[in-house]
Write a structure and sequence with these properties.
The structure holds three protein chains of three kinds. Chain B is mainly alpha-helical. Chain B has a domain of 226 residues. The chains are: A mainly alpha, B mainly alpha, C mainly alpha.
């Protein structure tokens, strides 16, 4: 029997992997992918919650599933903006490595 | 049938026209954004015309906001109209209005139409954020705002620093919003709803499960990022320094005000039962000790790092971190008084900071930089900007009789009163110590302006009209900072009345 | 009517900025004189009740918080307003030759003066704090732009100390407001604050204010600040600004928290005594004339604080009288050192001055300095004596042991004052052989040569300087001979304070 906890566990792991990716990776494209992972972790947990939150009438609570559609849209927009910024930066600096982006310093 | 635990069912009987009427400020701003975009694409590269259109549109939006009904609640809190929300929609629109002239007078701006369109879309994000009491809508508002701001930060495509600022803002911002989203998903999972007031009611009924606590913390992280509270402030110095000046001003003002309004609603309405206690001797787990720790850390770190800065924009960034800390005091204190103090302070702060950035913009156009040395001798070059800058700096430092002082007064007295037996005294002392430290670097800016000799060559003065637009903006902002210092009641009363 | 001191001064400040530079000093002088005349008229009017803190103006300002624009007057504030006017007029007269950025100079100067009037007249805690902070920033610019030795450091140090005090005061003000529910000083002084609050709020407030009065461990801003400041700046600092702290400590901290005062007064008395002796001892070792006077200020202000902590009528009245007296004397001393000597010889080094034979070159300056030193040492016939003897009577009643220590301190004061006097004016160029070792970088022969040749080149004392000095000398002598004129006005006001009852 796969319970809510299992889904949450997977979702938490996805989130952690995504966050680790953002922290550790140096290539901006990979970081963008890791970000997507984090958002999708949230999606997974929302859908799981929705499935297990059964109303009195027996239907799942659909709010969260609608929420997920919005998140997917938002994630797409975010990637578009992110890539645009990466392209702008690449034109100026010819790099996609965050370690090379050090014009601004403490 | 028993009472459904979920939010109220969607009210499908609201006619679309009614909805449009209630959401008219947002709708108008979207239309104006598209109009400005079209003008920017078709017309010449004149900066004045799209600016005028944007200003007119924002004024109309303010006017319609004033004419909204007193109370309305659509779709379980997705669009709430209340005196508080309307007031802060007006504040956000006013901040956008003050940013437009900055953008128009910015000479390096190559696509003013597109830029203003992004600014207006960001404003829509602000309005959505301020006007909703439901987590899904709040998240969408955050993202609409965030995406516009990322673009605005990276807008100057000729400047590597701008692109870098945009990238950093984007990376930190989207990580933080992922945290918020995950937090929201947990909150939703435990409470079964995304409407703030229902969450609050649910929580009040039983004990708080640990998963929910995780959700609270993650949600708070996202907002701590938006308001640039330490240790989630790392983006702020780079963005404030690297982004085009109007973008930095808007990020520092509008996005912060809206974030504080929403954060206040989330913690004081949604998470109210998980308040905890931040008093020195009776700490209880909950969000208020977390916010208190964030506040103390931000105040200390922001102020001390700001001491070492030689660039005025970076200095403003670190001081912004400290100010986020002060502002959090009101939320930690909680209650009506605390929340109104926070709202008052963040509004004042936003006005002041736009003004300060406007002066930085003028200095940068004239001397080609925004380090301390570029400010040297400003008093003799341009006594007017110097006087206004000193008003802004002294208000930030919290000297009477300027608005910033009253902001601090409201905040500190609210915190002092809160928590039985002056339990938050420790936080007040930290904040007072922080504002004492901050005086040093604000005075240093003034020292550069008034005392230091004019070292850098002035390159050129900007053309007449744009200079006039910038000066007028600064004058209005400085006047309002002084006026709100002499008569703080004008705003404080309005806020206090509107806070439920 | 007395409220016009504030309005006239601020109006003067604004007009100075608006009109051409040639008018600046005249307008400043006019504004300061007008304020002083208003004060004098009030001073000699028999129908003014000086025994109580009587309301002069009261206009609601921020009703939601209970803040009023509320000015009030009693004998204590009137005395201090009087000395503010005196110091302001003479400071302007002694800056008659300021030419660079003159408009700004007189603007900042008048802001300091106007803010001080405001502090002395405020009957609303909030208003008092507002004026108190309003004095600090102009003071910074006055010193940092127009000062001399190490000016930016001195100005910043002074300002940060003031703001540190201001932060403490702010905390105390919030505590008083939240607990007492009002900003009205008269109302709050009737309010019974809980002891626990008084226990911590009193020292916070008192120390916050006393920073500006130069209380011992936090006094170090005073000498450096005085030295860095332009002449008018040090005159205002010594004459007015240090009084702000002592006055507010009396009016607010002691008046509002009498219980806390009783718990802490011995501690602060000890600090005051240490301050008197320590500053006098340090002054004895200084070579810069302004440092000597700066430390003497700290020492004299120690008397004020000691008088306050006695908690009896004599001590406190004497403290107020000493505030007046030191305001006048301190301003006079700095005027001599800053304008009469330094502006002409470009040195304040006592050894260098010793070689210059200034007594012959600047007889009027010598005379003024003799008078000021005599008054500063507490020789009978000058205001310093009247004030210090009153304080000592009070101290004798409260802390008999302290009188002996303070007596030793007074000997030290006499010693360093005489030393400074002798070195600067009455050395007749003797011992210039020893000088070359003492003053590195300045060959003794050169100095005496230049002073011999340049004696004629030392510009004579100008008329404005003479008028300013005469004004201050007259004040110290008049009060010295007839202290009753002030004490009669101070004592009833002191007796009305709660901590005495």
């Amino acid at each position: 029997m796969i319970t809510l906890e299992h889904y949450l566990m997977v979702s938490g792991m996805l989130f952690a992997i995504g966050f680790a990716g953002v922290m550790v990776r140096r290539n901006i494209i990979i970081i963008l992918m890791a970000l997507e992972l984090m958002l999708n972790a949230a999606n997974l947990s929302l859908v799981a919650f929705s499935r297990f939150h059964v109303n009195a009438s027996g239907t799942p609570n659909y709010n969260a599933q609608i929420f997920v559609f919005f998140i997917i849209t938002v994630a797409a927009a975010e990637v578009a903006v992110g890539l645009a910024i990466v392209v702008a930066l690449f034109r100026l600096r010819q790099t996609t490595n965050v370690e090379d982006i050090t014009a601004l310093k403490f | 049938m028993s009472v459904r635990p979920g939010p109220q069912p969607l009210n499908l009987f609201v006619s679309y026209l009614d909805l449009l009427k209630l959401a008219s400020p947002e709708a108008i701003i979207v239309l104006i954004a598209l109009a400005v975009l079209t003008i920017g694409l078709t017309g010449d590269r004149s900066r004045t015309f799209p600016g005028i259109v944007a200003v007119v549109g924002i004024v109309i939006a303010i006017w319609t906001t004033m004419r909204l009904p007193q109370h309305a609640n659509l779709f379980g809190g997705m669009l709430v109209i209340s005196p508080l929300n309307s007031l802060f929609k007006i504040v956000c629109l006013a901040l956008a209005l003050a940013t437009v002239p900055l953008a128009v007078s910015e000479k390096s701006m190559r696509n003013p139409g597109e830029y203003l369109a992004m600014l207006l879309l960001g404003t829509v994000g602000l309005l959505l954020l301020v006007g909703s009491e439901e987590l899904l809508m709040i998240f969408i508002g955050l993202e609409v705002l965030g995406l516009s701001l990322y673009v605005m930060a990276a807008f100057d495509k000729t400047d590597a620093r701008s692109a870098e600022a945009g990238l950093k803002y984007f990376l930190f911002g989207s990580t933080a919003s992922a945290f918020t989203l995950f937090g929201i998903s947990l909150v939703y999972g435990i409470s079964g709803t995304t409407a703030l007031n229902v969450i609050g009611l649910k929580l009040a009924m039983g004990s708080i499960p640990p998963l929910f606590a995780v959700g609270i913390v993650m949600t708070l992280i996202g907002f701590a990022f938006k308001i640039a509270a330490a240790p989630f402030h790392l983006w702020a110095p780079d963005v404030y320094q690297g982004a085009p000046i109007p973008s930095a001003a808007f990020i520092a003002s509008g996005s912060k005000v809206a974030a504080f309004v929403v954060l206040g609603k989330i913690v004081l309405v949604g998470f109210a039962p998980a308040h905890g206690n931040a008093a020195w001797h009776s700490m209880l787990p909950g969000w208020s000790p977390i916010l208190a720790a964030l506040a103390a850390l931000s105040i200390l770190l922001g102020n001390f790092v700001a001491l070492a800065q030689t660039n005025v924009r970076r200095l403003l960034a670190y001081s912004a971190v400290a100010h986020a800390g002060y502002t959090l005091l009101g939320l930690v204190a909680g209650g009506r008084e605390g929340f109104s103090a926070t709202l008052f302070y963040t509004t004042i702060y936003a006005l002041t900071l736009i003004g300060a950035f406007a002066v930085v913009g003028i200095v940068k156009r004239e001397t080609g930089g925004d380090d301390f040395q570029n400010f040297a001798g400003l008093a003799s070059r341009s006594p007017f900007s110097a006087a206004c800058m000193s008003v802004f700096m002294l208000s930030l430092a919290g000297l009477p009789p300027l608005a910033g002082f009253f902001g601090k007064f409201y905040l500190f007295s609210a915190a002092f009163r809160a928590g039985g037996n002056h339990g938050l005294l420790w936080l007040v002392v930290v904040a007072l110590f922080g504002s004492f430290v901050s005086l040093y670097y604000y005075l240093n800016v003034l020292k550069a302006i008034f005392v230091d000799k004019n070292a850098s060559e002035t390159r050129h003065s900007s053309p007449g009209t744009h200079r006039f637009v910038a000066n007028a903006t600064i004058a209005v902002l400085a006047a309002s900072v002084v006026l709100l210092g002499v008569l703080p009641d004008a705003l404080a009363e309005a806020i206090a009345k509107s806070v439920p | 009517m007395i409220a016009w001191t504030i309005y006239l001064t601020f109006a003067g400040a604004v007009i100075v900025l608006l009109l051409p530079r040639a008018f600046a000093r005249w307008i400043a002088l006019l504004a300061a004189t007008a304020g002083f005349v208003v004060t004098l008229v009030t001073f000699f009017r028999p129908d003014v009740d000086l025994g109580h803190f009587t309301t002069v103006v009261r206009v609601p300002w921020i009703p939601a918080l209970g803040m009023n624009y509320h000015l009030a007057l009693d004998g204590i504030s009137l005395t201090l307003i009087l000395v503010t006017g005196l110091a302001a007029i003479s400071a302007i007269l002694f800056s008659w030759d300021v030419s660079e950025r003159a408009k700004e100079f007189f603007f900042w100067l008048l802001l300091v003066v106007g803010g001080s009037y405001g502090v002395f007249l405020s009957a609303d805690l909030f208003l008092l704090f507002l004026f108190y902070e309003l004095v600090i920033v102009p003071k910074y610019f006055l010193i940092a732009i127009f000062g001399s030795t190490n000016k930016e450091y001195g100005a910043m140090k002074l300002t940060l100390y003031s703001f540190f005090g201001g932060a403490l005061v702010f905390l105390g003000v919030i505590a008083a407001y939240v607990a007492g529910g009002s900003f009205d000083i008269n109302q709050l002084s009737q309010f019974q604050f809980p002891s626990q609050l008084q226990w911590w709020a009193f020292p916070v407030l008192f120390l916050g204010f006393a920073v500006l009065a130069g209380i011992w461990p936090l006094h170090t801003w005073a000498p450096t600040g005085h030295v860095a400041a332009p002449t008018a700046g040090s005159m205002l600092l010594a004459g007015i600004v240090m009084k702000l702290g002592a006055y507010a400590a009396l009016r607010v901290a002691m008046n509002l928290f009498p219980e806390g005062f009783r718990m802490w007064r011995t501690t602060f008395a000890v600090l005051a005594v240490i301050g008197i002796v320590y500053a006098a001892a340090v002054a004895l070792r200084q070579r810069d004339l302004k440092f000597v006077i700066g430390y003497s200020s700290v020492s004299h202000m120690g008397f004020v604080l000691l008088g306050l902590t006695t908690a009896n009528v004599f001590g406190v009245s004497g403290a107020v009288l000493q505030m007046f007296s030191h305001g006048v004397i301190g301003a006079l001393l700095f005027a001599v050192a800053g304008t009469m000597i330094y502006r002409r010889t470009h040195t304040r080094d006592l050894d260098a001055l010793a070689a210059m034979n200034l007594r012959r070159a600047l007889p009027f300056a010598a005379f003024t300095f003799v008078v000021a030193s005599a008054a500063s040492m507490g020789i009978p016939g000058f205001s310093g004596f009247a004030a210090e003897i009153t304080i000592l009577i009070g101290v004798w009643k409260a802390y008999p042991a302290a009188v002996w220590v303070v007596g030793a301190g007074m000997v030290l004061v006499a010693a360093f004052t005489l030393r400074a006097l002798k070195r600067s004016f009455f050395d007749d160029g003797l011992g210039s052989a020893a000088l070359s070792a003492a003053a590195p970088g300045l060959s003794a022969g050169k100095i005496s040569e230049s002073s011999r040749d340049g004696r004629a080149a030392l510009a004579p004392i100008t008329v404005p300087e003479k008028v300013g000095a005469a004004l201050l000398m007259f004040a110290t002598v008049a009060v010295g001979f007839y202290p009753k004129i002030l004490l009669d006005r101070i004592q009833p006001a002191v007796e009305a304070m709660r901590f005495l009852r």
